Amino acid sequence: MEVVHARCAGMDISKKDAKVCVRIAGAGRRKTTETVTTWGSMTSQILTLREHLVDQQVTCVVMEATSDYWKPFYYLLEDAGFEVMLVNARHVKTLPGRKTDVADATWLAQLGAHGLVRGSFVPPEPIRQLRDLTRTRAAITRERGREVQRLEKLLEDAGIKLSAVASDILGVSGRAMLEALIGGDRDPAALADLARRRLRSKIPQLTEALNGRFTEHHAFLARVHLDLIDRHTAAINMLTERIEVMMEP
């Protein structure tokens, strides 16, 4: 079988370490060698592994996409100029020709040497960073939404029907009413009078909606929810600014 990469490495990566097989194809009377070693997953240990692969004149590295454990290995080897192929574990295991006693790292090295695997697409670093930012923002936005739902559930428990009248309980008017409730004001009319702009036309409905049994217990929990919402909002704004900077041409 044709050898595409005379010096190829296969990596079987776990959380704590990586089994690495360096395969050096034979030529003439020299036999093919396959040497398996184990390396830790800390950055300093991966850098030492990288030096080892450079010393061995490895040109191609094949690794399986196992959880997120592959990422530090992939990024550091990519930085050094290796051709790194990230392959689907299920696909690799179903390829014919593997001997039963061959370790995963050795099998990956053999496949890479003969050009029998194709690496999955891994976006370049700027795109990876942008994706990390957008995914984090989406996750925090979802969590903020859940926190708002918890706050609404708390108000329902207290008999405060603010969301039935105000479409946004965290708008200028709604926030002012919530802060007043937390501060100890329980007068529905005084609370409704905090309405601004279009909500001023709904003061009678607000007065009715704000007539509940909002206790000190509710005030304590409402403060917790609002503080969490504010922190989520601040984080979302920071991430949005960062995303906008990274998307500039």
Q: Please list the strands of the largest sheet in the order they lie side by side.
A: 3-2-1-4-5
Helix percent reads 40-55%
Average residue pLDDT: 93
Q: Which word captures the global form? A: rod-shaped
From the helix content, strand content and strand pairing, which structural class follows?
A: alpha/beta
- Number of distinct helices: 10
Explain what this protein looks like in three dimensions.
The chain is built from 10 helices and 5 strands. It is 53% helix and 13% strand. The protein has 2 domains: 7-122, Ribonuclease H-like superfamily/Ribonuclease H (Nucleotidyltransferase, domain 5, 2-Layer Sandwich); 126-246. It has 249 residues and is an alpha/beta fold. It has helices at residues 43-55, 70-79, 89-94, 104-113, 125-157, 162-165, 172-183, 188-192, 203-209, 216-246; strands spanning 7-13, 17-24, 33-40, 60-64, 83-87. The radius of gyration is 30 Å and the shape is rod-shaped. α1 (43-55) packs across α2 (70-79). A hairpin with an 8-residue loop joins β2 and β3 (33-40). Strands 3-2-1-4-5 form a 5-stranded mixed β-sheet.
What's the short story on this structure?
It is built from ten helices and five strands. It has 249 residues and is α/β, with parallel strands linked by helices.
